[in-house]
């Protein structure tokens, strides 16, 4: 599968992608996982490297983010199984709000989506604002991006971007009342109509105990 998971902080993107990674590994399917589009990158960078990234000027942040989005357009075409967290849509929302205020993203999401493979699946994860705020308090990120007061606005921006996206295969999941295992199963169930032939046969083989 080629999956792009988007949504406000604390809606479950990393939880879903890590769950899919484990699910795939258990079935001999290795997904390429990139969940590092937020600033600072928490997937690969050490603490001191994160500090350096945060200190970059707005101009350099915008340029770096643009370069890595372009690079991952290549990757989503290269890998048959790839999981991307946030990616181009998150950048189009978080960039002008938090990384380089006052500047627009160099290109709108559809600029990149025009080059996406046709079997890409866009997953919008959402949750009630009060649930996200509760998660922020109970399991805070080391470097939070979205202030509590911005939650409704950011949720709406992701909703609008999801609706406007050129990606054909779309799934929307409200994670407000879902445990991690339930979120994974919800995605697996709702993604079936969006699978390409190869992935559908793999899923069917797993369901019948052949894989």
UniProtKB/TrEMBL annotation:
<protein>
    <recommendedName>
        <fullName>NadR/Ttd14 AAA domain-containing protein</fullName>
    </recommendedName>
</protein>
<dbReference type="InterPro" id="IPR027417">
    <property type="entry name" value="P-loop_NTPase"/>
</dbReference>
């Amino acid at each position: 599968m080629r999956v792009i998971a988007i949504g406000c902080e604390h809606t479950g993107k990393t939880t879903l992608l890590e769950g899919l990674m484990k699910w795939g590994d258990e079935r001999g399917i290795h997904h390429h996982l990139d969940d590092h589009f937020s600033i600072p990158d928490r997937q690969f960078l050490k603490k001191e490297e994160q500090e350096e990234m945060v200190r970059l000027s707005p101009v350099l942040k915008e340029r770096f983010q643009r370069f890595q989005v372009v690079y991952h357009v290549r990757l989503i075409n290269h890998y048959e199984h790839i999981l991307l967290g946030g990616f181009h849509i998150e950048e189009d929302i978080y960039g002008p709000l938090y990384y380089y205020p006052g500047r627009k993203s160099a290109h709108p999401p559809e600029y990149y989506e025009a080059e996406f493979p046709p079997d890409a699946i866009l997953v919008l994860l959402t949750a009630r604002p009060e649930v996200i705020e509760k998660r922020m308090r109970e399991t805070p990120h080391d470097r939070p991006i979205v202030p509590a007061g911005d939650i409704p606005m950011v949720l709406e921006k992701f909703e609008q971007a999801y609706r406007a996206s050129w990606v054909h295969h779309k799934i929307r999941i409200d994670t407000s009342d879902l445990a991690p295992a339930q979120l994974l199963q919800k995605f697996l169930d709702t993604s079936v109509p969006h699978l390409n032939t190869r992935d559908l046969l793999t899923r069917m083989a797993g369901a019948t105990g052949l894989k």
